[in-house]
Write a structure and sequence with these properties.
The complex is a heterodimer. Chain A is built from seven helices and 17 strands. Chain A is of the alpha/beta class. Chain A folds into two domains: 3-132 and 299-311, no CATH class; 135-293, Rossmann fold. Chain A is globular. Chain B is of the alpha/beta class. Chain B has three domains: 40-286, no CATH class; 327-407, no CATH class; 483-631, no CATH class. Chain B contains 31 helices and nine strands. In chain B, the strands form two sheets. Chain B has a five-stranded parallel β-sheet, with helices on both faces. In chain B, strands 7-8-6-9 form a four-stranded mixed β-sheet. In chain B, helix 14 links the parallel strand 3 and strand 4 (250-255). In chain B, helix 23 packs across helix 24 and helix 24 (435-451) crosses helix 25. Chain B is elongated and about 100 Å long. Chain B starts with a helix and ends with a helix.
């Protein structure tokens, strides 16, 4: 498909301090120990006409939100509740909404995003790239970087459970690769896809030029064992739309298979996978292992990206 | 694949295809072509519940898939006429973690999750049966409509829209599942759809199927693979069905060792008991030693017979391809003769030359034993030699006990091969009844062999076999990290224990030979419940994922009592770490020491070794240099 039919509606800023949310908008965010998620508190002082809403994880399926006094909820939102999520966005009450996914876990931002896309508000996602990732002091083949403490294990992202059954042979498994090869190994072990139907996607160009090489290095064991290296596809590491289109292409190549997508790479790729899950007419299953991130997994912050999700006019399934 | 196509592939490609797809899920249709019936298979086809227990790679999935109707069809030559003659029809289902973990969370109280899951399980099992009926009609060209009344009953039982035919019932079931999916995804909103009674729709549907003329006197099997993936309460839900199955259908369960965590049904006082309620088939126990060797021989030779080469050469049989070494032959390759020459020289200065003639008459390894013994007992060499001359029978017994252990000491601290792991017999020991591991050892050896421009009509050298076994061990060590959520801990545990046993093997003089097992001290040294729980979790995970093998200790053991078992590092890792692959002697370890291997490896390894007056100073073998950072980790 020609590029003109595949828009990439993204604004790229050199750093978080060269961007400010628009007046009258709402900015929904979370913070983690990573430096790159700290910017909203700085903006809060500078943008008096922007409603900042901080989201904090309570447990695997609930968040608390800081909406001020005008909220209709008690400040807690269950992530497996269409009704509570809808109320939350009503309480946010802005037509133009930013959802900053930098400091939020997948299991939090994905259900928020799904709900926001169905409310009709003008939704933009924000992501800040890290300046660098932390190298492991004791690297092994699958662990060059020191990013996750452990994983909780596979379970559905709230609101994204799929009960569609299919024969094990009728599955195309699409892992979106990051640096941690053991996570790919774990998922392959759990999903058990047919070896020739594993189609990994690597972020190229990466946040930095050398990152794709680390991705290959970290994942080499599973890529070699399954021979999935033959099927590798590429999509820009910071572009959810490129990932979305890559999934579209893969779906066309495997028209009869259930697509199982594992968003274990960059957050923009995970965003693309969630968008594809929501917009696809075919069942697409997200498979995620829920890592516990190390607080110091990244250092500094680099570019800030604003993705104009609503401008894609996706037909979102509720 | 036709023979022409086969012979056009390179030997490497053919080997990779026939031996390299170790996993059942990677073989797809080839799985059935390559199936070799294991000795326990007849037990599985009896019409009673069976629990098939085994680690990864022991063949659970292969056996269950071969019991399924798709498998049976392929195994019986895809002959539609025969379908109606089968005595049983099996429906295969692999428990999918990404589905079953959706049924938990703080939104509902436990008892409501039980009801929701029981309904979901009804939907899945009924779907399996309906898909089978569709398949049966398609392949046998005969109608197997269960009829209007039965459709109504099943639909009512599942709260589906009514359907008149199997197809309509299946479609309505599909719609219902989608609605149920929407409910689970928004479980916080309430609005629960009506739920079916546990097992009731399965009973209705299977009753209807068995009343059809095609299925009179037939057995129906639900084949549930990877039972360990169920949550604890979900195992209880399915256990309840297993307990009360029998009349209409039965269950065949595939589970990893220690993966069946709950034996109770939903009634906590009601347990599933072997053999009253089910037959327990432990693959490792059923395929022990000679039985495994026979099974493995037949699997490998069957695959080798499918190799076709352009030059029409015939490959050797697997036993001939993989020759081993006797201990004396191996000792010679490891340089025992140099050691003997030095012993001879040492003794020459203190023993009259006529008394030394005996040294030339006995195997060099036995001569080496004399020096080994003198070092262990810190006695002068000539005294031990005198003792050897005067007490030959005692030394014969000693030689029998230490012969193998001596091999680990001959090239202690040197570069290159320090110990050989070669021969079909040794490979079957390394695999420890695990057919996947054996296939990996075989294919790795053969590929390395071909890489040296050799053919499969020539035997593989012992050096190549040893290198292959180390590579397979290394691969499994690095794979361990990705096997489970405790993977990183398992890797550290194995690195620590492997190093301990490696040093014990190399520094064996004055110690019991071939120590490669451990058991836990009775006293609770941890005195901390959280630590005890962590230890149990670690050991359970290590056994489930084949880092360790366990066997009942001296006392009668309850399966859940980790402290009453003996543990051994899986022999597949023995060539990587360099210790004996044979199940031999054991050492006591504290629970806190096992946990210490994760948190402060260097100090813990030192402490363990110190108890037997060994030191940590032994240089790391080359293959362990990759993990130097772990071994340097004081804390």
């Amino acid at each position: 498909m020609a590029l003109r039919n595949r828009p990439l509606p993204t604004d790229i800023y050199e750093g978080w301090n060269s961007f400010l949310p628009l007046d009258g908008s709402a900015y929904v965010y979370g913070t983690s120990a990573e430096e790159r998620s700290a910017h909203p508190s700085d903006w809060e002082a500078r943008c008096s006409n922007v409603k900042f809403v901080r989201v904090t994880e309570r447990n695997s399926s609930e968040v608390s939100v800081d909406l001020g006094v005008a909220a209709s909820s008690d400040g807690n939102v269950q992530l497996r509740s269409k009704e509570q999520l809808r109320r939350f966005w009503n309480d946010v009450g802005a037509e133009s909404v930013y959802l900053d996914i930098t400091g939020l876990s997948h299991h939090v931002w994905a259900p928020l995003l799904r709900s926001a896309l169905t409310t009709g508000s003008n939704l933009k996602a924000v992501y800040v790239e890290p300046f660098d990732y932390r190298f492991s002091p004791t690297p092994t083949e699958g662990e060059i970087f020191d990013l996750s403490e452990r994983i909780i294990g596979i379970s559905p992202i709230p609101g994204f459970a799929s009960l569609t059954e299919t024969d094990d042979d009728d599955v195309c498994f699409v892992p979106l690769l990051g640096f941690e090869g053991t996570r790919l190994q774990y998922l392959v072990e759990q999903v058990q896809p047919p070896a020739e139907k594993i189609v990994p996607i690597i972020g190229i160009p990466g946040f930095r030029a050398e990152y794709p090489f680390y991705t290959y290095q970290g994942n080499q064991s599973a890529l070699r064992d399954t021979k999935a290296w033959k099927n590798v596809r590429f999509a820009a590491a910071n572009c959810p739309f490129s990932l979305f289109y890559a999934l579209e292409d893969i779906a066309k190549e495997y028209p009869l298979d259930l697509l199982k997508v594992a968003p274990i790479g960059t957050k923009p790729h995970a965003l693309g996978a969630v968008l594809y899950n929501l917009a696809s007419f075919r069942p697409v299953e997200l498979v995620y292992d829920h890592p516990i991130r190390k607080p110091t997994r990244t250092a500094g912050s680099a570019r800030l990206l604003v993705y104009h999700l609503s401008s894609l006019s996706l037909n979102i399934r509720e | 694949m036709g023979q022409d196509q086969e012979s056009s592939q390179t030997p490497e490609e053919q080997l990779s295809r026939l031996f390299g797809s170790f996993k059942a899920e990677w073989l797809q249709e080839q799985l059935f072509d390559l199936f070799t019936e294991p000795a326990y298979f007849p037990e599985l086809v009896t019409p009673r519940p069976c629990l098939l227990v085994g680690g990864r790679g022991t063949g659970k999935t292969t056996a269950l898939r071969c019991l399924s109707y798709e498998g049976k069809f392929a195994l019986s030559g895809r002959q539609p006429d025969l379908i109606s003659t089968w005595p049983y029809y099996g429906f295969y289902y692999r428990v999918n973690t990404n589905r079953v973990t959706a049924f938990k969370g703080p939104e509902l109280p436990d008892e409501q999750w039980v009801r929701a899951f029981a309904h979901y399980f009804n939907l899945i099992m009924c779907d399996l049966v309906l898909r089978f009926l569709e398949w049966y009609e398609l392949h046998s060209n005969t109608s197997v409509e269960i009829g209007y009344d039965a459709c109504q009953k099943v639909a009512a039982s599942l709260h589906l829209a009514t359907g008149n035919t199997n197809r309509e019932l299946a479609d309505n079931l599909d719609d219902s599942r989608l609605r149920f999916e929407a409910y689970i995804n928004n479980v916080g909103d309430g609005q629960r759809p009506p739920l079916s009674l546990q097992g009731a729709p399965i009973d209705e549907l299977t009753k209807a199927v068995l009343s059809l003329p095609q299925f009179m006197d037939k057995s129906l099997f639900f084949l549930l693979d990877e039972y360990e993936n169920f949550e604890d309460y979900q195992q209880q839900v399915v256990n309840t069905l297993i307990k009360h199955s029998g009349q209409l259908y039965t269950f065949k369960i595939g589970v990893k060792e220690l993966g069946w965590r709950r034996r109770a049904t939903l009634n906590e006082n009601e347990q599933l008991i072997h053999p009253a309620d089910y037959a327990r088939i432990n693959i490792v126990e059923k395929l022990k030693d000679e039985r495994f060797r026979e099974f493995a021989l037949s699997v490998c030779n069957e695959r080798i017979s499918k190799l076709r080469f352009k030059d029409q050469t015939l490959p050797l049989s697997i036993e001939s391809l993989l020759p081993g070494l006797t201990e004396d032959e191996e000792a010679e390759r490891l340089g025992v003769n140099q050691a003997v020459a030095s012993i001879f020289k040492d003794l020459s200065s203190t023993v009259p030359s006529e008394d030394l003639s005996l040294l030339g008459e006995i195997p060099p390894l036995k001569v080496y034993l004399i020096k080994f013994w003198s070092e262990g007992g810190q006695t002068p060499l000539h005294e031990e030699y005198m003792d050897f001359q005067n007490n030959r029978r005692t030394w014969d017994t000693r030689y029998d006990n230490y012969k193998h252990a001596l091999l680990y000491t001959l090239r202690r601290g040197k570069r290159g091969i320090r110990k050989y792991y070669a021969g079909w017999d040794v490979f079957t020991h390394l695999a420890a009844s695990n057919i996947r591991y054996l296939l990996e050892l075989v294919v790795e050896s053969l590929l390395l062999h071909l890489g040296q421009d050799k053919s499969l009509s020539q035997p593989v050298s012992q050096e190549v076999q040893t290198e292959a076994s180390q590579q397979v061990g290394k691969k499994h060590l690095s794979d361990l990290e990705g096997l489970s959520i405790h993977g990183a801990q398992l890797t550290k545990l194995l690195l620590g224990l492997g190093r301990v046993f490696q040093i014990m093997a190399a520094d064996a003089a004055g110690h019991a030979p071939e120590i490669n097992q451990f058991y836990l001290w009775e006293t609770l040294d941890t005195a901390d419940e959280a630590q005890e729980e962590e230890l149990n979790r670690l050991l359970t995970s290590a056994v489930m994922h084949l880092a360790l093998l366990r066997s009942p200790g001296n006392k009668l053991a309850d399966e859940t009592q980790t402290r009453e078992y003996d543990y051994m590092i899986h022999p597949i890792f023995s060539s990587f770490f360099l210790f004996s692959h044979r199940r031999k002697r054991k050492v006591q370890l504290r629970g806190s020491e096992l946990l210490g291997l994760l948190k402060s490896p260097k100090n813990t390894i030192r402490e363990i070794l110190l108890r037997s007056n060994r030191t940590i100073d032994e240089p790391l073998p080359e293959q362990l240099h990759l993990f130097e950072a772990y071994y340097d980790g004081a804390s």
